[in-house]
Amino acid sequence: MGRVRALSPRRERDRDRRGWLRGAPPPPWVRVLPIVLIVGIGVATLLSHDPLDIGFLLGAVPPLAVLSYGPLGTGLLGGAAVALFNIPAFQLDRPGNTDLLTICFVAMLSVFVSFVRRRRDVQLDTERTIAEAAQRAIVPPLAERVGPVRCAGLYRAAERGTLVGGDFFDVRDGPHGVRAVMGDVQGHGLAAVATVASLLGAFREAVLDAPDLESVAGRLDRRLVVDAAQVRHAELFATAVLLEFSRDGAAVRLVACGHPPPLLLREGKVTELGIEPWPPLGLGLADAAAYEGCTVSLQPGERLFLASDGVWEARDAMGAFYPLTDRLADLADEDLTVTAERVWADLVRHCGTARDDVTMLVLAPANPLSR
Predict the structure, then answer these.
(1) Cβ(144)–Cβ(5) under 8 Å?
(2) DSSP string for 298-314
(3) Over the stretch 286-344, which tens digit does the pLDDT of each residue have?
(4) CB distance 63 to 106 below 8 Å
(5) Number of alpha helices (DSSP H) and beta strands (DSSP E) in the chain
(6) 58-96: b (≥16 Cβ within 10 Å) or e
(7) pTM, two decimal places
(8) Which of 63, 151, 162, 249 meets the CB 3.0–4.6 Å disulfide criterion with 365?
(9) pLDDT digits (tens, 9 = 90+) for 292-307
């Protein structure tokens, strides 16, 4: 197995698509806002020759502080607002006891709310860390190289805040060669994670003992049939592409189960591989079907590009499909990861926010001189 590529900061930001209203840290302007409000009110009153009727704005300082400060910071800002009321030089409305008591009450209430928010933020961060660890255990980061095969994968889950959805991929080395899978289960988001985990577990086991690629497909099909039988009224199915590389990486055998076939990048041209389609996984037909995979020879520099329905079926505002086959050659790069990231950026420009899980897998035989 090769070493695992560390995620760059930009890719980490792409994965964490939460806005600050969805749990991410607030932007700097939110943190600065209560301070700017206090300073602005103070400066305005000092520059004015007459008393200004703007003291009521100070009542907004403690609630604004709750958004980004802890109990201590909220208390200090609330205290600054109360102090500003009591400094004669600022001539703020000449407040009475009722005004002061009101803002003191709002400040104390804001400190309590900040305390509760901070405790819940800590709890949510802990739960998110655990959830991310569990999701990464299901779909771990892809190694740069597995045996004689160079690899790059890109995954963007449709459901915000998740790392795993209804798509899956994996590349594993075993006694029968390097085998890879990419697929899409029924549904997406967290509801599909259990099916993804079940399929990947069956695939990783089949890599070790299934004698051929067709047997691996049959194993996955049977896994879904058994899982569906255990859940009343369940209709579990998945599409997938399975690949098996020869020991030297010069040939690959492919089986497509209801999934678009891979694209072959060869000499600057893109070719859609013609594979006899199998039925989707989970229908109980794979074991009985008299289908066979096809074998394709690969030369150094040639690459296989696999994409999920989230790429093939992506549409723009006018309903036009994303032209992956037409654009892939111009977006391709020797660095497999760069290829996937360029396609993702181009896909976003074409259709905006992805409405389905988006998965890409780029595979290529390793340079013989580097073996």
Answers:
(1) yes
(2) --TT-EEEEE-HHHHT-
(3) 665 556 788 999 988 899 999 998 899 888 888 889 999 999 999 999 999 999 999 99
(4) yes
(5) 10, 11
(6) bbebbbbbbbbbebebbbebbebbbebbeeeebebbebe
(7) 0.71
(8) 249
(9) 788 999 988 899 999 9
